[in-house]
Amino acid sequence: MASTRLYPGMCDASLEIFFNEKENELMIIKGGSVMNYDSLPDSETQFLDEIIKNETDVRMILESWSLSNKDQKKMLAKCRFGGLNFSPDYKNGECQPDGIDCPLANECIGFGKVCKPINYNGNRLSNFDIKTIQLLISSMKNTVIAEELEIPLGSFETYRTKLYKNLNVNTKQELARVAIELGLV
Question: Which CATH number fits domain 119-182: 3.40.640.10, 1.25.40.340, 3.40.50.300, 1.10.10.10?
Answer without folding.
Answer: 1.10.10.10
